[in-house]
Fold:
Amino acid sequence: MHNAGMNYDVPSAAAEIARWQSGAISRRQLLDAGLTSQMITTRLERGRWQQLHRGVYAAFNGPPPRETWLWAAVLRTGDGGVLSHQTAAELHGLIDSPAEAIYLTVPATRRITIPGLVIRMSGRIGQARQPNRDPPRTSVEETVLDLAGLSRTFDDACGWITKACGKRLTTEEKLRAAMASRKKMRWRDELNDVLAAASDGIHSVLEYRYLRDVERAHGLPRSKHQVRVVIDGKTVYRDVYYEEYQLAVELDGRLAHPEEERWRDSQRDNQASAHGVETRRYGWRDVYAHACETALLQAQILRQRGWRGTPRPCSPRCPVGRAWSASERRGA
Structure:
């Protein structure tokens, strides 16, 4: 992340460093390049440079861009500091908009507090850093696991993994290896299960919840995920697909739907229906608050489409057992 097109107000000895660091440069780098303290002070006093942190400057005037601030944060933390957590997620394309604060990790041997920066310590900084990338940052895998480990809920942790795999930023194997190298990891067994699901095409927390709480928990047949289907010459991907029974499930966690999107979804469902594929759509409430009722409905639809199995209740209070027995007696 360096700006080759901008000329910075520094002597040639330090110009290449400034270019590489998007215009950010540290006092130590300037002194090593032969500048004196007075030269630095003069440039700052005349407004040709600006101080971003103590001992870290922007070698230009005007508003510093995001990449200059990121470099300045790394330079301010000193040896071994790397961008991490939400800021590394931003650089890897894991999140779309930057967090307000800049997050960094430094070696565990150091204690450092800097206003405006969120700094954590780690004894694994050497293996966590992504090689050959600037500004220094944690790797995709380490970033995902750092964020998962600090998540408030398991669903949040699951979301970081499904998003990274769904965006094809990493793989199940790489994340599993990174997890194995950590002595401590919250929800280790559960997240290993999420990784297995992600390798099968699970791309969201809602899809994982459907697999775990609706399908598996109630003994429904195993579905496939993100299945490519061609309808009237157009390629679409089904979130959940029971190929043998020509039944598709679309899972949507969005609270609001633009009219145009609703119409497109409806058109797609109707076209699929013309080809013998039934589509069911479920949202958060169906999967989170009413997983058992959704499983019962799915079992009934699957039975109508040729499934000969029997759903099982997930707990003594699950309505699936009682409701299924009653429907069987009625000859459903």
Observations:
- The mean pLDDT is 88.
- The beta strands are 24-26, 50-53, 56-58, 82-83, 102-107, 117-122, 224-231, 234-242, 247-251, 278-282.
